[in-house]
Amino acid sequence: MLKEDILKHYVNEAKNETSSANATRKSQKKKGTPVPPQVVLQPLSKRNISGDGGKAGMKGGINEGLRLCELQYGSYCIWHEENREDMKDSMVKKLKDQLFVARAYYPSVAKIPAQNMLTRDLRQNIQELERVLSESTTDADLPPEIQKKSERMEATIAKSKSVTMDCHNVDKKLRQIFDLTEDEANFHMKQSAFLYQLAVQTMPKSQHCLSMRLTVEYFRDDSFDQELPVKYSDPTLQHYVIFSTNVIASTVVINSTVMHARDSMNQVFHVLTNGQNYYAMKHWFLGNTFKDAVVEVLNIDPFIPDYYDKTTPSHLNLPTEFRVSFHGINNASAMHSRTQYISIFSHSHYLLPEIFKNLEKVVVLDDDIVVQQDLSTLWSLNMGQKVMGAIQICSVRLGQVRSYLGESSFHKNSCTWMSGLNVIDLARWRKLGISETYWKLVKEQVSKKEGSAALASLLTFQDLIYALDNDWVLSGLGHDYGLSTQSIKKAAVLHYNGNMKPWLELGIPKYKVYWIKFLNPENQFLNECNVNP
């Protein structure tokens, strides 16, 4: 059970945001000034670890109410619509509706002396339904003659509607019932959205079990000694870096990359995790082989104190995800609204030059991707004077999120970029002092209390991004139900950005098949912990 005060806080917070937005709109309209399109940028599930696109395939086409819902609650609304079940216990719901209407008419009918018979029928039917509903919560609990009772109530209500009476009282009563029902529906919507976010941010019990089992086994079994430290720092090999605290997610990334590689002998994977998950990761990757590739597991915690200060979190940060919503607040229609999901580097990514001092080039992979083609051609890219190769998102430009970037100078037409698949020239990174630039921007935004420190990465790499071909990565598998099978098969990398990750029960079922096939269902630890995404 969730504590009631938590839910109340969530509901009150939403109400305050709504009333504040309405007040702003009213004041702007009174002044007669034009209202610019509104940009709402909200972080998705916090993936910071310490010890929510399109809907082209939505059912029934684009639903305006659903789009308005998404602006407020994000991908929860998409998930809710796609997982909507047929109404259960429809007769119970119908009886409740009839009871509401009958109660609304009864006081007015009872005041008319000539309608004593109708008043008696209404009272009897109301009492009868109240008795039935007090004993029945589902259709299966209802008595056999309930259909006849419902028909009698329907006939009595029809007679009440035909009687000339003071409609003001009926209208008042119905409005009261409607307001109560609407408030209850809104509360349940906020509650459901809250529980959805809780499910997104909570590690599944099976994966927690897996991590604990692997940690215990690491200290029990000291027979593993397969590490190859010479390969870990060899700059002539292909080095892939993964920030992750999720054993099975990082396994899928490595397995899918190796399975599609022409030559896995030259592949070296570096999994950067925190102290809490280090031993579980270590035992897992020492106990599993990935063709001829080697895997190094590193605890990032010892590297953090040298760089982080009191203004930044002193723990592993995974890529930060945001939901960016654009909508014109002068236009009541949601048809002119759109939502885009982006993921960018976090604080931990700026430790790369320090961690890999002997390397000049790495490819950074997020742990929510699946590789479908050979990635070796990335190592022959000529990026010129650029520092990083990334997929650019020109549907979101820096000028559109300027209120979140503070007073820093930037080109408003510059495209944003995505993490997921990133080619990094570490030599040029060090030469240009990218990490130092980032920390300076973060400290400025924190000290001035302006902008969003989480978006400092967008400014740090301004004019330093080499745009990868869009065929490299298909994003949206963690929030967009409308991606075509053809586009999925064509992409070299599938990115499950968004809240509905493939290892969660909330994951989109039709996309899970591309992810789950890279897990070994016969693995002893997975079976013992019932890990079955």
UniProtKB/TrEMBL annotation:
Keyword Disulfide bond (UniProt): no
Segments for region (Disordered): 13-38
Record-listed E.C. numbers: 2.4.1.-
Pfam families: GAUT_1, Glyco_transf_8
Intracellular or extracellular location(s): Golgi apparatus membrane
Keyword entries, A-Z: Cell wall biogenesis/degradation, Glycosyltransferase, Golgi apparatus, Transferase
Top EC category: transferase
Coarse class of the protein's main subcellular location: Golgi
Record keyword Transmembrane present: no
InterPro entries membership: GAUT, Glyco_trans_8, Nucleotide-diphossugar_trans
Membrane topology: Single-pass type II membrane protein
Pathway the protein takes part in: Glycan metabolism; pectin biosynthesis
Family: Belongs to the glycosyltransferase 8 family.
Protein name stated in the entry: Hexosyltransferase
Native species: Gossypium hirsutum
Lineage: Eukaryota, Viridiplantae, Streptophyta, Embryophyta, Tracheophyta
Gene this chain is encoded by: LOC107941829
